[in-house]
């Protein structure tokens, strides 16, 4: 069974930085693209960023381009989201997810396993 565990969330002031981690179980982590989504209070879960299986292709929501960087270390079975220049509107629960094979990167329907989420709160 695949398990995904996020960590690194917390409270940060606007303009600050956080680095989220997603640790994956299993021995086939490198066979799957991965993604980050977030859900703010009262809002739908939305796409943040995604990364191909080898890390060679990166995808970002327009709202985070230039501020967030997605990466992965397949030797550690871990995916990361470096978040810089944080804004109050980035406040949300952040989820990591494993990508399925034949769907787009920017929709939650394309991901088959999800972590429990980690809270990111950005104060003004």
Search tags:
124 residues; mainly beta; 7-stranded mixed sheet; 4-stranded antiparallel sheet; 0% helix
Structure, explained:
- By secondary structure, the protein is mainly beta.
- It has strands spanning 4-7, 10-13, 18-24, 34-39, 46-51, 58-60, 68-73, 78-83, 92-99, 111-114, 118-123.
- The strands form two sheets. Strands 2, 4, 5, 6, 9, 10 and 11 form a seven-stranded mixed beta sheet that branches. The protein has a four-stranded antiparallel beta sheet with strand order 1-3-8-7, with no helix packed on it.
- The model has no long low-confidence stretch (mean pLDDT 95).
Q: Count helical runs.
A: 0
Strand-residue proportion: over 45%
Low-confidence parts: none
Radius of gyration: 13 Å
Backbone shape: globular
What would a concise description of this structure say?
With 124 residues, this protein is mostly beta strands. The protein is built from no helices and eleven strands.
């Amino acid at each position: 069974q695949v398990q995904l565990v996020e960590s690194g969330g917390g409270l940060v002031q606007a303009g600050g930085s956080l680095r989220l981690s997603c640790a994956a179980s299993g021995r086939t982590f490198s066979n799957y693209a991965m993604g980050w989504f977030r859900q703010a209070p009262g809002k739908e879960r939305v796409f943040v960023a995604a990364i191909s299986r080898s890390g060679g292709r990166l995808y970002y929501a327009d709202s985070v381009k230039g501020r967030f960087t997605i990466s992965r270390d397949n030797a550690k079975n871990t995916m990361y989201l470096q978040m810089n220049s944080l804004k109050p509107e980035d406040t949300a629960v952040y989820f990591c997810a494993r990508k399925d094979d034949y769907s787009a990167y920017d929709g939650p329907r394309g991901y088959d396993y999800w972590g429990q989420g980690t809270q990111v709160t950005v104060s003004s």
